[in-house]
Amino acid sequence: MTQSKILLFLASVILVCVSTLNAKADTVSFSSVVAFQGGSITDLAASPGATLYGSTIDFRLDIHGATPAAGFNTLQITFAETGQLPVIQTFDVPLFDGLPADYSQLFSFQPNNPTFGGTLTTLTVTLLSGASGPVIQSQTYTFNSAQPVPEPATVSFLVLGMGGLLSRKYRGRLSFRNNTPPG
Description:
With 183 residues, the protein is of the alpha+beta class. It folds into two domains: 26-149, Coagulation Factor XIII, subunit A, domain 1 (Coagulation Factor XIII, Chain A, domain 1, Distorted Sandwich), CATH 2.70.50; 150-183. 26% of the residues lie in helices and 38% in strands. The protein has two helices and nine strands. It has helices spanning 2-23, 152-177, and strands at residues 29-37, 40-43, 51-53, 57-64, 73-81, 87-93, 103-109, 119-129, 135-146. A hairpin with a 5-residue loop joins strand 8 and strand 9. Mean pLDDT is 76; it is low at 18-25.
């Protein structure tokens, strides 16, 4: 009987050890922070200093790893352009009972001061335990926010249109001076 109790005890210890190995939290990481613009995707980690265009920039963030099972986490995203006040967005991140799970968050920002040459901008992504608890993970990405330069065809059409208006105005003045009706 004592041998069966010892085996039962060892089996219990092994079961507890295996379950605690699975319950340990993996390091939380932001594996993919990408910007969507004009049908293309820019990975901010792989392209520091990239230039992003548009009046609104859309992003996707992927979080990998496990976090504590109790409570909730807060994702805080800070968008800061040079010379402007930072804009902060927060999102509640659901917890998955401590199991490793992947989570993606979509968000957008509108640059306040984009220039044709690009304005230095930082995007800081912070995962907090609870509403304002300790930082679980934080990462900062830098890029330039810029206004799109008009396409050459758009500029050509604008110049042709203005030229047409000026020629019509000039033609009207000539016709009036010769006492002939404008054509």
